[in-house]
Specification:
- The chain is an alpha+beta fold and 161 residues long.
- It has helices at 3-26, 38-45, 55-63, 80-87, and strands at residues 97-102, 108-112, 120-124, 128-129, 132-137, 141-146, 149-154.
- The protein has a domain at 97-154: SH3 type barrels, CATH 2.30.30.
- The strands form two sheets. Strands 4-5-6-7 form a four-stranded antiparallel sheet, with no helix packed on it.
- Strand 2 and strand 3 (120-124) form a beta hairpin.
Length: 161
């Protein structure tokens, strides 16, 4: 076969395929019908099964917005990141105990229960440990600020209970 004959055969094949696809898309080759079941006929014919809504109810529902009665915008804007931040629990506050105070020109205190520190730790005014800042060391108490809390710790005296 010559190339010219092959070319005409390819063109005829493509045209025949296109005509067949158009015929099937326009109308199916076999007719398909579904018969209605007895249940669907009863539902379609039975006006007594469908409850009617009063015109007054429909007008009342349409006249106002069922989701926001005041028809005003929300006071706070929707921010999914802020909602997610609020859901995460805050870390627990540490249980701090003051074991002792060393008075002098630069007073020091012995603290137990600082986050990230095992055992006791000697601190001075201005020290920052795990976000907790030592603000003041008095003769009988230590003031610590951090984690949205202010602790005033007094020396533990076991004999007083």
């Amino acid at each position: 076969m010559t190339p010219r004959v092959v070319q005409w055969l390819l063109i005829l094949g493509v045209l025949g395929g296109a005509l067949t696809a158009a015929r099937i898309a326009a109308r199916p080759l076999a007719r398909v019908e579904l018969r209605a079941s007895a249940d669907s006929v009863r539902v379609a014919r039975g006006p007594d099964t469908v409850s009617r809504i009063a015109v007054e109810s429909v007008s009342a529902i349409v006249s106002r917005d069922p989701f926001r009665i005041g028809r005003k915008a929300a006071t706070s804007p929707y921010d999914p990141l802020q909602v997610a931040e609020q859901m995460t629990p805050r870390p627990p506050r540490p249980v701090l105990t003051l074991e002792g105070i060393v008075d002098g020109p630069e007073p020091s205190a012995v603290l137990e229960g600082l986050p990230g520190v095992d055992g006791f730790r000697i601190v001075r005014v201005g020290d920052v440990i795990a976000g907790l800042q030592i603000k003041q060391i008095k003769k009988t108490a230590v003031v610590i600020v951090g984690m949205d809390t202010t602790w005033v710790l007094e020396v533990r005296e076991p004999w007083r209970n």
